[in-house]
Structures are given as structure tokens and as C-alpha cells.
Automatic annotation (TrEMBL):
SUPFAM superfamilies named among the record's database cross-references: PLP-dependent transferases
Record's protein name: Cystathionine beta-lyase
Family: Belongs to the trans-sulfuration enzymes family.
Cofactor field: pyridoxal 5'-phosphate
Organism for this UniProt entry: Paraburkholderia acidicola
Keywords attached to this entry: Lyase, Pyridoxal phosphate
InterPro entries referenced in this protein's UniProt entry, alphabetically: Cys/Met-Metab_PyrdxlP-dep_enz, Cys_b_lyase_bac, PyrdxlP-dep_Trfase, PyrdxlP-dep_Trfase_major, PyrdxlP-dep_Trfase_small
Amino acid sequence: MTKSHSSHELQTRIVHPEDDLPPGYASFSVPVTRASTVVFPDLATMRALDWRNDAAWRYGLHATPTSMTLAQRLAALEGGKHALLQPSGLSSISNVYFGLVKAGDDVLIPDNVYSPNRDHGDWLAKDFGITARYYDPMIGAGIADLILPNTRLIWIEAPGSVTMEVPDVPAITAAARARGVVTAIDNTWSAGLAFRPFDHGVDISVQALTKYQSGGADLLMGATITVDRELHLKLKLARMRMGIGVSSDDCSLVLRSLPSMKVRFEQHDRTALALAHWLKTRPEIAAVLHPALPDCPGHEFFKRDFSGAGGLFSVVFDERYSAAQIDTFCESLELFAIGWSWGAAQSLAMPYDIASMRTEAQWPHRGTLVRFFIGLEEEADLRADIEARLAALK
Ligand SMILES: *Cc1c(COP(=O)(O)O)cnc(C)c1O
């Protein structure tokens, strides 16, 4: 593409500049390459393009050097081979549905799944002629009994959003594989660091990069990661048809945060675990739902399959406190903000009414659940904050 424009008028030369930068530049940061149009050297190259070829530049929506670098690093981090980036974690979930499921198909979804995923299943069932069925997340190998001839996809979340049950992932994926059913895990909680989905028979891993990978609560992005190329291509085709992509500026923010993710995750983990153990001793708390603690259903699978926990866990308050009292507890915390999207430096607290959120699995607790995200503040300050609000509950 080196056509000379030196003989043209100034305006034309500004539109077609000939830059003359000194060679040899190198830095640690990945250049931000923004593009809608990708320029081809000639028509033969353009006509020979095959969308299946991940190494061919086609269009800014599909990939730029910045987004491809991020995709490759995420695939490597998770132990996968291919990664696709979507503009939010939820759109990654959506990409899995649209890549794999068509009218007449059946999908199995855990009862404790991230609730917009549940809503997605209900929507496809209502308007697009699939069936979405919910299963008890602790079902394990018993999932085999639920698989129908038209079951195409089984969702897994480990642990479940908000209620933190840890499923027996290898038992579910073994049953799925025996029947040729694809499994997709929402692996956001572990950031791909503490749980290695492809070592446990999972086919697709979904990450909400909005959380730990961003680390700054300042962008939205998601990824689907696969080992199998045919599966990758199904997702890639659906992504292309949906017309979704990501901005290279956002990718560069994630690329900047990614090297510090493991140390951040481990720090979140240490503080959260210490607070979880302390909360367990408090008379106001009926149960601590942290996968590393024995109260949490599936604790044995956590010990077997996971290498860490990060900053997200829940507690159930004693039933003597009303939901309104727990609302006041959450609102009066000084260091915990009220907000959905976790994974940044700041702690969060959010109350949930679990009984209203599920249809299959029994919810054994009667008190109000509060989900904590433990940020990067000092443990002593967070503990003092919670302790003061617990004392005010009396
Ligand atoms: C936040 C989250 C998502 C969705 O991510 P967005 O980028 O906010 O759409 C999906 N799954 C889990 C478990 C999440 O926590």
C-alpha cells in the first residue's frame, strides 16, 4: 500500500500522509489499532478471504491487531486455543446461544445461573421455539436423566451467581459428552485463574472481562474461549452475523490490567477468606456461602477442582432480621458500595431475595442473603465497617 502522493495537493497529502518515523520503536504496551475499514493490498487478496481463517484481516468489527492480541492472551490464560471477544459478558452468553441453538432444540440451565442468562433462556423459549429447562446445580451425574435427544447445550456456572453452590463439573461434562451435548461454563467467578474448565471436560468457557480482567469497573467486555476449532467457528459465524465486536481502546485497557490480574485476584482472595471466616463466628450470620468454607454446598468439589477463590462470596443473615433491616445494613456500610459489577478495587454489598429467583433447587435458608465483593481495601478497615453495622442491627 505504499503509493506515493508527494506530487499531490496539500489536502490530498493530508488525507494520504507519508509518515517518516524512525525505525526500531519497541514498548511494553500493545498499540491501539482502531479500524472500521481494513485496507487490502489488492483485489485478489480481498477476494481470497475466508472468514474461517483467524489470521486474515477482514474488517475492524471482526478483529484488529489490538483485539487479536487480547483474544490470544485470554485463550492462553484459560488453557484454550481460540477466543472471541464480545461487547459484554452477557453478549458472550448470547453468542453461545445463537451459535449453537436453533428452533426445536433443548437447553439445560442451572437454577442458580447469572440471572440475565436465565432471562435469555426464557426469552428464546418464549419467542424462538427452543425449550429452556432449569436443573438443580448440585445434580452432578444425575444430569444424564435430564438429557433429551434434542438437548444441544448444557450451561454450567461454578460456583453459581449469588448463592455460590459449586457443582460437580466433571460429572456433568462426562454425562454431556456421553450424549454428544456441548457444555458451556460461565467461568467469570474464577477469572480463568482458579478453575481450568478444559481440564474438566468443558467445551466453551465464557468470561465477563468486565470483572477482574478489567479490574477498573470502567469497561464492558466478554469472551468465549474454546479448544475445539469447529465449535470456535460456529461461535465465530454467529458473532459475525450478529454484527458485534469490541473497541480496540477497551481492549487496550484490558491488556493493561491483565498482567496484574493474578496478584489482584490473590489479594481479593486473602481478604475475602479472612472476612468469611470471621463472619462465620458472628451470631448475626446464619451461613457463610464461600466455596472454601464447609457451609457452602459443593465445598468438596471446590477443594478437588479449584485453586483459589477471589473476592466474591455471600452470607445469609439470621432470620430474626427483616429484609428492611438488611437493606439498612447494606446502605449504611461506608466502604461497601451498592452496585452490580464487581472485580475492581472497591468493595460492594448487595441484598438478594433468593426464593424469588429459582424454580428447581430448594433454597434452604430463610434469612436475607447479602453478596459481598471484597475489594483491595485493608481487611481491618472492612471488618471494622461490617462490625459497626452489625452492632447497629440489634
Ligand atoms: C457480570 C457477569 C456477567 C455479565 O457480564 P457483563 O459484562 O456485565 O454483561 C456474566 N456472568 C457473570 C457470572 C457475571 O458476574
